[in-house]
Amino acid sequence: MEATAEKTGAAQEWRAYWYLPLVAGIGFTAPLLYAYALGPFVEPLQEAFGWSRAEVMTGNAIANLPTVILLPLFGLLIERWGPRRVGLIGVTIMPLAFGLLGTATGTSINWWMLWAFIAISVPFVQASVWTSPVVARFAAGRGLAMAVTLSIGSLASAVMPLLATLLLTHFGWRQGFMGVGLAWFLLMFIPIASFFRGPQDGSRAARQGNAAASDAAPGLTLPEALRSFTFYKLLFAAITFSLAVVTMTIHAVPMLKGLGASPLQAASTVALYGLFSIVGRLGMGWLVDRYPSHIVSATFYLLPIPAYLLLITSGTSPTVQMVAVAMMGLGGGGQVGAVAYLITRHFGLKRFASLTSVLFSIIALGSAIGPVSAGAVFDHAGSYVPYMIAAMVLTAIASLGLLSLGRPPYGAAGH
Q1: 318-332 residues labelled b (16+ CB within 10 A) or e (exposed)
Q2: CATH number, domain 14-403
Q3: 53-81 and 204-216 helices, crossing angle to 10°
Q4: pLDDT tens digit string along 196-214?
Q5: Strands (E), 101-181
Q6: Of 38, 215, 240, 320, which has fewest CB within 10 angstroms of its CB?
């Protein structure tokens, strides 16, 4: 009876708000823009300015380090101001800032200033903006709804390297940056402006009423969560995702080119990451709505390990490259959705935006130091192998940490 009621509740949620995960997913592509579209530009920038890969990747550090502090503050803003207003600002500034990278002059100061503009936009497009309305509207079907939202980002991560490669091949890297930025603004703004609304959006009275309801909802506050060892296990899993998966995905195009792939072959292979991460995210969402979430999450965290082993041992084979990237996609797609989902089940919805903002600030920290570190490893060793070995160790530890969580106090149907 309980399972039947849960399925009925999920069906009702989808009938009422079927469009919301899709539109939120379009918004979720914004913070992925500078991560997944940058890879094809790495070597052209090196050739144009004589930079090392670590120097190119300093931009990611500049974009992400300030957000480690700002994201938790913006979590409070989302809860009180509403995600719609915050998101509309973000989808306007982010693509403009990315397009301006095409004006780089070759000096470090200029490069850093361009990335500082991106850093300003990052808190406005953080994942909490897009997931907050979804988790508020969906309860019985929350896992799948979140997976759909995040899967749109996976599709974008497949398209971005291909679009960037095609534009820079035909028009040059400067116009390539600008073209990607313009295309993504046109993709995001109208759907977000037209359809993206959650319970927090509306009149001041409605926002105040929803804020009061959120205060009364079951769950932990941020100070209470910070006293929980479970929260730190989730934070470790989050930074592992950015260090081990996001970092290697950013470097994937130049890495595969170094293994013998042509630029278009490398971009096409990396596109498999996005496609298979959709499968990973949807699979994770379906599974955590039905089975113990800590077991499902721990399993997904292990999937990148065999991918790295394949690249280390047989990475020059095009077939192996495709299989490895596909496995990274399956694992990476499930990882980020798993951690966000576990926040709702272990800490409730009272302060979801604040808690996930802290979570994604840790991901931002990893995204800041990971690409630069991997670039420095390559510059020193001439290979990404040492970094991949470290990534495998981190993912194994994170998987064990998630497995130790046990059943959550705010789980659905005993999950």
Answers
A1: eebbbbbbbbbbbbb
A2: 1.20.1250.20
A3: 100
A4: 987 766 655 455 545 544 5
A5: none
A6: 215
